[in-house]
Records
---
Amino acid sequence: MDTENNTNTGAMRDLKSLSKGELIKLMEELGQPAFRVKQVEDWIWNKNASSFDDMTNLPKSLRTELAGKLTLGGVEEVARQVSEDGSRKYLLRLPDGATVECVGMPSGKKLAVCVSSQAGCAMGCAFCATGGAGFTRSLTASEIYDQVMHVRDDFNTRVTSVVFMGQGEPFMNYNNTLAALRKLNDPEQGGIGARHLTVSTCGVIPMIRRFSHEPEQFTLAVSLHSAVQKTRNILMPGVKKYSLLNLYTVMGEYVDRTGRRPTYEYALIGGVNDTRDEMDALCDFCRDTLAHVNLIQLNEVPGSKLKPSTQRKAEDFLNALARVGVEATIRNSRGADIDAACGQLKQRLS
Ligand code: SAH
Ligand code: SF4
């Protein structure tokens, strides 16, 4: 499933898919001085150029040569929704026509961006609009990176954090997700600190293990949603084969290896995962671990039978977790008035 698809536009390669080594080689072949490499990189990774002609400090002849050899992929905005709280949600079209969503969430001087790692998702979670719409394809590293640049340019301000909580399962597109994280972290590209880059996974265990070996201090969130195996199997059929027991073990290994605090996402669904038994199971799963729990009210997906829980239940969960020494927060979902739950803008427009 881990697609290494870097060429999504037929015969011609995309400039953004070239490695640094390949770019250096290309400039040599074209008889260009070495400093052109840095100029080109600046156009694609910092200035977000949308055509070769934008690259005004390159000779015209070089721009024409590049346009004859390569494509310059980018994202094109096809729709947006603006929330009362200032969040903006975008529907972006990729060069092959696939569409993905991303969200910009400003707060004071900070700008958080939520990106998609795949167009659609194959994991089929029962509560998720993306899961219900099926899987199209994985995104390349630069398609993930470009979403962040699009939001940066639209707000005309520095992006201070990125979460991989849009469409798709990042750990089913591991290599491209990692490459995007590294671009976002690189001081000459995104320049965002590793701790401010968060990957959210539904719990693909072999990739959590792999992630714990990466040298950077990226942050990890795991969508738990139930600590009762039977309930979780129904809510998250795509990770049925990875039992909660194995998830518990691998998360212990992750904490031992990295010393970093993981987050568990728990969307409260009325009558499904907000009962007393579910609360006790969640407390047992989290006690004596370093984990932080984010309690979120389910974002209602049109046509779904699943409904959000009550605020009272969320507070009961918070208190129960506190009693066993587990840190937890009740999160208000940003942009609730703009279909902020993953996949909803796309679903509404299609
Ligand atoms: N595939 C990854 C990341 C994308 S989903 C994952 O599942 O973790 C981002 C987050 O939104 C996850 O925690 C997911 O469980 C949650 N989510 C999806 N649909 C939701 C909904 N309707 N209401 C609340 N949270 C939802
Ligand atoms: Fe995919 Fe995450 Fe949605 Fe599940 S919650 S279907 S893993 S995007």
Note: Residues 17-71 form a domain with the DNA polymerase; domain 1 fold (CATH 1.10.150.530).
---
Amino acid sequence: MPVLPDYDSPTALKAFLDERGMAMQKKFGQNFMVNRAHRNRLVDALKVEEGMGVWEIGPGLGAMTDALLARGAKLSVFEIDRGFAAVLRDIFSGRENFSLIEGDVLRTWKKAAEAEVPPRLFGNLPYNIAATVIADTITGGVRFDRAVFTVQKEVALRMAAKPSTADYSSFSVLCQWAYKVTPLMDLAAGSFWPRPNVVSKAVALDRRDDWPACESPELFMSLLRGLFSSRRKTIKNNLSAWLQRPGRLAPGPEAAYVMEQSLERAGINPLARAETLAIADFLRFSDALHEAGVKP
Ligand code: SAM
């Protein structure tokens, strides 16, 4: 039976990698969670039950994988680093409830979701990958009952931010459209090896049962990005810049007309800023633009 590395010891982890001629790859945002108490708290936060399906993105050398399997998770892990994938296969492939999907999760998750979307998702990931996975799954209509992510603290706060606050962004709206977002504990840089330059924070996402429908999730997401593209500008100014992209407007009515009609239909003040709007406002606005034939 392969021996697990000592996940709590940076020295032992370094020796484990050295023995295999492996090195950490900065481009993949690799920082191992070396604090056992935090690992246990994160697994607790995921609320895994015996036999429950879980996806873990970015297992690294398997510190969380081991903890998740110990709780009885039926686990699929997504890892991009070939060396780590080989180690994971070596350590865990004998375990009944383990499967590995090697490669970039942004390319592999869809096929896996076609087979089954599990109730739980866990990820300790570089910010851009976490944000893209969250956005892509939501717009692709895939949601998990509960997800726990460890991300940069600012990102966790942005995900949970309320309207008219500095952290409120297109990403806040998208996350809160699909999930109830709850910031959990801070994770100091010293809980990871190598130490990152930022403080991390865990955040929980719980599927919203009252998820309001939207005619075109792609248009909704694109509109959000457009309306928040210059925070200081009014909705009208951001909107007219966003509408100018070729192909966005159906041939026929002029941009000014579409804009005026859609704003009026959705009851949006053109001189307000996007940060003052609630999720329901963005949804009404996106649906009004969709009805006017605007494309994402
Ligand atoms: N979960 C481990 C832990 O807590 O010790 C490692 C976390 S480390 C911050 C991030 C992990 O995500 C690394 O193993 C890295 O190789 C992996 N990763 C980064 N980008 C990825 C991607 N696009 N697809 C799959 N895995 C990725």
Note: The mean pLDDT is 95.
---
Amino acid sequence: MRITLGVTGGVAAYKSAELVRRLQQEGHSVQVVMTRAACEFVTPLTFAALSGQKVITDLFAKSSTGEANLESAIEHIAVAQRTDLLVVAPATADTLAKFARGLADDFLSTLYLASTAPVIVAPAMNVNMWQHAATQENLAVLKARGVHVVEPNAGYLACGMIGPGRLAELDEILRAVQGVAQAKRDLAGETLLVTAGPTCEDIDPVRYITNRSSGKMGYAVAEAGARRGAKVILITGPTALATPEGVERVDVRTAEEMLAAARKHFPACSLAIFAAAVADYRPAKPASSKIKRSKEALTIRLEPNTDILATLAKEKGERIVVGFAAETEQVAENARKKLAQKNADLVVANDVTAEGAGFDHDTNIVTLFSRDGRDLPLPRMSKAEVAERILDEAVRIRAVLRSKPATHRAGG
Ligand code: PMT
């Protein structure tokens, strides 16, 4: 998981350095965010050296000329989007209060508001501060909101008092992290088939027809699926992307090759997500040698490619099948048509003309149209987060279907 570790200003801040190491040993990548007060206890350099990443300390980091830099002012959004889990250890009374009340006056509190990832806080403070009604009220608000609280232990505190307030043992914090990680292993035992990227349809040995798909959307789905425990087979057209960790990749070039690979792997999958931008047409007769330039107009006759999704979904049985709809107009209407025509359980519709959506962007704006009538419009978010929402919806549909008699899927 990509963990963002918030370190706030308390004596226990030095223990977070060891926490970075332990999280890394468990296979997580760690981005450290420190409050100004935390920097009084431990230097950012310590965390930078341990995490191997720049430590974020300031909402408005200044450039070398002393001007506030825009990039850093919006960095909390980027960090929020790539955070799978926010852990705050130690969490001071001040930070808990800010989180509970929605105050956002530094990088960490702003990140907390901007992120939709699960949150774990491990408070540490003086015993009276811990027991104060204000702190307990803030904790109750956070718990009600789903924040996991790793309660402090009792013992001698740095202030010389005895009682609860000492940062929980690192093992306890790590157990909470494992709990969150396992909660999202909801695809363990499943096989997920994903198609991604464009296809290339040859005109002659040097020219081809393709589209603008970068593969980012499909790869994000494959990556999220693997993280959630699925065995993932990614059938991909040509892209510049690295294979996500734990994913079996099958490279194809044309729609026909993608169809063949999908046919081969579809029987073994329990969930199939068709995110590829498959060319609808291919040159009927690709030339075997380079077409020579001439003064005459050139006509290339195109013939339709097989619809991979529609073909395979006819025989989907108990599988959950998810299609995409790349639209430029009448998005909802066209998406609902595709849902029915292609016998999908879920269609992810994106208006590919919208700013920050569709081809080659790192973000997307989608609406999820489910067979069971639920339409879920989502705001602009990273493709990684869209991928999580698609998987959440697929898991929900699977649970609904499993609760019904088996006959309902006959004929799609
Ligand atoms: O790759 P990115 O740069 O990240 O861009 C993401 C994306 C815009 C490609 C993605 O979000 C998306 O919309 N993918 C589907 C693109 C598409 O081909 O849409 P469509 O509406 O033409 O097709 C509908 C569905 O049928 C899709 O699931 C498609 O994979 C499938 N299809 C289409 C044609 C075909 N011959 N076989 C298919 O399986």
Note: The pocket of PMT is lined by residues 195, 197, 213-217, 255, 274-278, 280, 305, 307-309, 323-326, 338, 350, 352, 358-360 (CB under 6 Å).
